User: What shape does this take?
Amino acid sequence: MADFHQNGHIATLHNLRTQSLDEMTYELETFAQTRKMSLILPCLYSELETDAMPLILSELAKVTYLHRIIIGLDRADEAQFRHAKEFFKGLNQNHIVIWNDSPRMLALDARLQEMGLAPAEQGKGKNVWFAMGYLMACEDSAVMAIHDCDIMTYTNELLARLVYPVANPSFPYQVAKGYYARIGQDKLNGRVTRLLVSPLLIALKRVVGDRDYIDYLRSFRYPLSGEFAMRTAILPDLRIPSDWGLEIGVLSEAWRNLAPKAVCQVEISDAYDHKHQELSPEDANAGLSRMSTDICKAIFRKLAADGTIFTPNVFRTLKATYYRSALDLLEAYYNDSKMNGLSIDRHKEELAIELFAENIMRAGQVFLENPHETPFIPTWNRVHAADPKFLSDMRAAAAADAAEFD
Assistant: This one.
């Protein structure tokens, strides 16, 4: 049975196995009568060809409380967009596939570029941002949820537990972050959370001192999970990174905009497994190497915005402190794995720690050399101020694509 520990910074909502899925679904159906809920699925076309997506669709077909599903489709040509529309026809809910590479959507992106408001790079952050914009243009949902499209252990209970804290009108939560044990194929996974984020936050606290923001991030059991839900009223003023710092960026925005009592984490799965990124030690712009650098930059930027002063000496000290903290945690992870009959390769784990230590320095160097970098996608409030017709034009473009390529 799960524990009931509370960390004192944000609320932790556990799965104590005392509430059935049917009971929770009934409550969500009741909430949905006055609070419409929408789901965003940021999706690469290649993910349609995996075993995960058919499973996700079969589980979503059982969901009765969703008002709308928005699928943001990246890296697809016209034939693949047509196939995607056919692929998602099995959904019972009102849904739309937004072809982000269509001529209409590219024209809208060019319009943003002319105003200096376009996302800096392609990726999940841009996909999610456009889907949020479409949802705001619809003006009919009170609750929004997002989860990844490569979850190989997906059940509709995951979605129910994720959305419940922000859908329940008697709860104060504006943002709910999903967490779970990252276990798959008899291995302990979640390398970037275990071997980078956790020891980095420990090291930061030792090097730069007590910071409420560091304690806040340390409160999340799985800060890099791609599953979160929020009330849509906060979307227009949300700033998110366009790189791999998306998940940390959303938590940082919740910290900036909301009181701690408005944020919670919720246990959504007993065991969770999805596609694993390669470590890519030979290529700093790919895999977990790129991801770790972007995550470090996101954390450094937020601390600097709150007044923390970083210098080359601080980053050198941080690297050394991180390395020792990571090795100490690795010992605990190794023993935990062995006690639970899981395999763990200490050599590969230490190789990852060595790479992450180097990337802390790389992220610090980039941060110091580019103090004027603007990594965040503009808020939708700013876009609306610059071009009041943009959101309605985007909704019309997505509808035109759906009609033309049916």
The longest helix spans residues 312-339. The first strand starts at residue 11 and ends at 13. The two ends are 48 Å apart (CA to CA).
